[in-house]
Amino acid sequence: MDTNKQEFESINSKKYNTKVKQIIESMQKDFLDTTPNDIGLSLADLQNILNKKGILHAVKSEYIEENEALKSLEFFMKDSSFDIQSLNKISSVLISFRTHSDYPITRLTKMIELISEKINDDSNLIWGTVRDDSLDNDLAIINVLFTETQAS
After folding, report:
1. Three-class SS of residue 73?
2. Per mean pLDDT, which range of 41-45, 81-85, 140-144 is the poorest?
3. What is the pTM of this model?
């Protein structure tokens, strides 16, 4: 068995909630299917987020809209128990984008910029892209794991 696949199985066998396990499983393809044209993420990036102390949140979304940058902040909080008023409590974020090769990189960078502006300056923000030409030209599949620091 491939070492990276073994690592993912090991990570996903840990006691994370169902939503986190689903996102890790979805991200597995993004981590393992990278090409030289992608901005790849590594298992070390994933483990960096998973090893942070705090509450781990997971979100997956798909967008086919012109205003993804604004929607990205909404999906970031949607489907998680995270309170949007607590953006300054985010300590680390891992974002994986899967898009068609014709998808404008400027849309992705707008999403990253918006998230970066809204979270704590000390937060660790890691992102990567995987091109998938089986997707519609305007579709972005976005997987996010983020850690919320707990009050002392």
Report:
1. helix
2. 81-85
3. 0.80
